[in-house]
Amino acid sequence: MTDITTKPMGEHRYGATVREGDLTTDHVVRVTDDFLDALALPDADEEQIVRESVAFLLEREKSTELYEEFELDLLIDKFPDDYLDELRARLS
Q: The domain containing residue 23 runs over which residues?
């Protein structure tokens, strides 16, 4: 079982901890204004955006393969065909 916890670390910056059994990884995720504009969900909670984005990534990569620090804009570039649509669905 995978457990994702997030915590605010400043404006548009969140810590994300992923626990999979005995393995724990920590990541810093930034939510840029450009990303929020692209997402086009003005009432979406940033912390939930980060949590769902990390869950999206974990369905495609191992937690040990995630960057220690990254901006969510990277996911738009890495998964151009499905990331934003999937995230919108998860948030609604």
A: 2-86
